[in-house]
Write a structure and sequence with these properties.
Layout: E1 2-3, E2 6-13, H1 16-38, E3 41-45, H2 52-58, E4 72-76, E5 78-80, H3 90-99, H4 118-133, E6 149-152, E7 177-182, E8 187-192, H5 194-197, E9 202-207, H6 213-221, E10 240-246
Parallel strand pairs: 2-10, 3-4, 3-6, 6-9, 9-10
Antiparallel strand pairs: 1-2, 5-8, 7-8
Helix pairs in contact: 1-2, 2-3
């Protein structure tokens, strides 16, 4: 489907269960391909309720052994400014359902230090990413090599990662990671910016439920206004965007046959 993002492919699943299975398969296949081609798989996880069952499935028998976890490197697209043991932490959710169950070397997990001062945590995480992906801090601009896969969700206000409507990070051109106080959430968040998201080989949105139908239609079929609908700012330069959505979320889309 040709959407507001240029080439973006939408796959509609009949229900949430099949969406979860499809997302897990896509991650497993992406990992195998990246490891075969480049010897490692770099993935940025998202928080929230939609990916939780996907992570749970990846940790289950039948999926877990299909990935060479020793070559998987885990990052996070965004984080709430809370300690790693806080129930609101994206890292804690991923750790509980997946990371503690997978045979992952601890050194392969790069969490955002949400317990630090927000500006410091953002700058430190950008330094981590620049060391891994290359791209001079002095010059700004995108990574020399992007993530293999960035997982994203979308809120009912069109936000993705912690790129909320109206935040400066949505239109950032140089910094890779930024901190911002998010009024609607009542807390500080740290997020990757479109500079690093749009350098990825593949970006995958997971969108589920009737509550997302109206905003999904606006993002795909409405005018391009990323400051209002930050999910529209995700337009990889050479990578692909995949939208995995269930039927209730896709209910208002004009789907081409």
């Amino acid at each position: 489907m040709q959407g507001a993002h240029g080439m973006s492919k939408i796959t509609v699943y009949p229900d949430n269960e099949s969406l979860v299975a499809g997302a897990a398969d896509l991650i497993i296949e992406s990992a195998a391909r990246a490891i075969a081609e480049r010897g490692r798989f770099t993935i940025a996880l998202s928080g929230g309720e939609t990916p939780r069952p996907v992570y749970t499935l990846l940790a289950a028998a039948g999926c877990l052994e299909r990935i060479d976890w020793s070559r998987v490197f885990i990052y996070f697209g965004d984080e709430r400014c809370v300690p790693p043991y806080d129930p609101r932490s994206n890292y804690l959710m991923a750790r509980t359902v997946l990371l503690d169950k997978a045979p992952l070397p601890r050194d392969n997990i790069y969490r955002i230090h949400g317990e630090e001062a927000p500006g410091k945590a953002a700058a430190d995480y950008e330094d981590v990413l620049r060391r891994v992906f290359g791209g001079g801090a002095a010059t700004g601009g995108p990574p020399l090599e992007g993530f293999d896969l960035i997982l994203l969700g979308m809120g009912d206000n069109g936000h993705t990662a912690s790129l909320f409507p109206g935040l400066a990070a949505v239109t950032e051109k140089e910094r890779w990671v930024m901190a911002a106080y998010v009024e609607v959430a009542g807390m500080w968040r740290i997020t990757m910016t479109p500079v690093v998201i749009n350098a990825a080989r593949q970006v995958v949105f997971l969108v589920s439920g009737a509550g997302k139908a109206e905003i999904l239609k606006q993002v795909h079929e409405g005018p391009y206004q990323p400051v209002v609908l930050p999910a529209q700012a995700v337009r990889p330069a050479s990578g692909e965007v995949r939208w995995l959505v269930d039927r209730p979320a896709a209910a208002q889309l004009r789907m081409e046959s």
